[in-house]
Amino acid sequence: MKTGDFDLSRDGVYIIAELSANHGGDMMIAKESIKNAKETGANAIKLQTYTADTLTLDSDREDFIIKGGTLWDDRKLYDLYQEAYLPWEWHEELFTYAREIGIDIFSSPFDKTAVDFLEQFDPVAYKIASFEITDYELIRYAASKQKLMIISTGIATIDEIQDAVDICRSEGNEDIVLLKCTSAYPAPLEEANLKTIPNLAETFGVVAGFSDHTLGITAPVAAVALGARVIEKHFILDKSIGGPDIDFSLDKEEFAQMVKAVRDTEKLLGKVDYSMTEKKRKSRQFARSLYVAKDIKKGEVITEENIRSVRPGYGLHPKYLKDILRKRAVKDLPFATALRWEDIKS
To answer: If DSSP codes are grouped into helix, strand and coil, which group holds residue 14?
Structure first.
């Protein structure tokens, strides 16, 4: 399974810097964010493609006022999305720029018109946001374009996740990544439930990853240790820019620390390996082996008093201790001699 030139089965963890609303309404900030995300080691920059009108209605009715203990309580949905959206006329320049500097770029479409608009740029993937996982026709339409489908599962039931996967497959699209996500901003650590990540992969037969809204970089590292192959985290060029997503976004230095921690975790995980490497062989000199603990005369009986398992490891393996007890030495064996089979009468 590939996104651009990156092979998810071979090339490690795919790290996505989510630009979201962190462009501050300024094209140059958006471009600098892409450049700096590339410099941190991110594999991709992700945009969001919507307008306030494609997401909600411009209504002051109570249903359209945010509530529930969020960062945006008492704001009107329309006003929040109007502030956060990335102008569609920027996309061509941002896609071109990202490709010029060598970082993958794609977006989250929030309706069919966004998919149609994005198709002209041939994105490497489509990302379905957590709150859009119940929009089955959007998923179906995006999947039909035969791009990699990355789907956040933050608010979904297990049946809705299965529906989303089935819809992609019904369109002949088997390239599916499910991201464990907690749709709280910021997300409390105790609600992350990262053990779900390997279960997503096993239950749905897909690549699993993690879209992170917690503070700091601990959660992505733990997610990778549990098998996440994709990590998505909000990126902001400078927190002085402000904006609705600042509280759960990482700046350049923090994001670079996360990337390094993820790459170090990949190295630590390595592979299943029981082979005897050259380093292991050299280290075995410090293992235990059988040595003469008291001078032994030729013909004398081997006992636990005159032979011991000690460091270093140049003598017989300790597992042979029981086999050599009560046998006789075939020659004088001075104290601290590494025991060999040829020293013992069979």
So the answer is: strand
Separation of alpha carbons 285 and 279, rounded Å:
11
Q: Is 265 inside a domain boundary?
A: yes
Number of helices (H), then strands (E), belonging to the chain: the values are: 12, 12
Confidence tier at 81 by pLDDT (50, 70, 90): confident
* Closest to 65 (Cα-Cα) out of 56, 54, 75: 75
Domain CATH code at residue 148: 3.20.20.70
Q: For residues 178 and 234, state if they share a domain.
A: yes
Name the β-bridge partners of 127: 150
Neighbours of 51 (CB within 10 A): 17
Residue 74 covered by a domain: no
Helix-helix angle 252-269:218-225, to 10 degrees: 20
Phi, psi of 125 (to 5 degrees): -160, 165
Cα dihedral 189/263/153/236 (nearest 10): 80
Report the amino acid identity of residue 19: L
Q: Percentage of the chain with pLDDT > 70?
A: 100
Residue range 121-145: mean pLDDT, rounded: 97
Domain match, 206 and 249 both: yes
Instruction: Compute the average pLDDT of residues 136-144.
Output: 98
Give the residue numbers spanning the domain of 245. Answer: 2-50+85-269
pLDDT tens per residue across span 233-254: 999 999 988 887 888 899 999 9
